[in-house]
Amino acid sequence: MVILENDFIKATISSKGAEIHSLINKANGTEYMWQGNPDVWAFHAPNLFPVVGGLKNNTLNAKGQAYTLNRHGFARNVTFRRIESAPLQAIFEYRYDEETLKVYPYKFEFQVIYHLERGRLRVSYKVINMDEGDIYFSVGAHPAFNVPLTAGESFEDYYLEFEKEEALHTHWSNSEGLLSGETSEVVLAQNLLPLKRDLFAHDALIFKNIQSRAVTLRSTKSDKHVRVSFPYFAFLGIWTKADAPFICIEPWLGVTDTAEGHADISEKEGIQTLEKGHVFETDYCIEVG
């Protein structure tokens, strides 16, 4: 494990998946990250690459061939190499190899960079094209936060505060976790979305045209909060499991397949195109209080 620490927060990060395991506010001693109970959901904050969400029949169509690639890609399950570790910053790297080429036919380097900025953790993604031509990918974050953050509170004591006024519609998933084509309105009260279990009757809330560049998890009974800011991400997912004491706030550049699937990865919704020799960079931030 790698520990980053300043006067305000302490972050613990694993080389497996380059995943945040812990984020503690030193002023109040609170652990903000879900602790990955394997009986509920074994992850904490997986990094999603080279796809976000599921593929129809777990099939990626690329370079005229079909490849088997599981939901959210492989980055969350592989061991990254730590190429830099300092008190305030750590850089993790994963490069293509024979195994990745069997499921994703592109040569790449994927870096996840963590940097502490007072009470904020910045998570940056860097993709380097090492292939002979264009590469296609999605990237996303899946951080899970404890709800409740304070003993004696409940899931329903919490709400999400959107940065801007929104007219939100969520895109439903079918039983295979693919977009069904159905949508429904998600009504906010003065930019606030109270958390209720039935919000997730159709799995994650998936927002495609969100105007807000930040969402804050707050309680009606205490001042503890988590703000996730995502200035460069086109999609946002909000998810929890039935009766689980966490909520995921997920900035994505990409989205799960439709029920019809995709003819080629280059045509898949939200896919990023990166030219030979070029570098892609983006980031999001988690701020706790």
UniProtKB/TrEMBL annotation:
A biological-process GO annotation: carbohydrate metabolic process
Cofactor(s) the protein needs: Ca(2+)
Protein name: Aldose epimerase
Keyword Ligase carried by entry: no
GO molecular function, one term: isomerase activity
Annotated organism of origin: Pelobium manganitolerans
Alphabetical UniProt keywords: Calcium
SUBUNIT field: Monomer.
Gene3D superfamilies documented for this protein: 2.70.98.10
